[in-house]
Amino acid sequence: SFPEGFTVRTFAPGQDEELLTHIRNVTFAHHYGSVPRTVEEMTYRTKQQDFHADGVFFALDGDKIAGFCYTSRDPREWERRGEKIGHIQLLGVVPEYRDMGLGRALLLTGVNYLREYVDLVELGVEGKNDNALGLYESVSFRQHKAWGNMLLSR
Question: Which residues does the chain have with pLDDT short of 50?
Answer without folding.
Answer: none
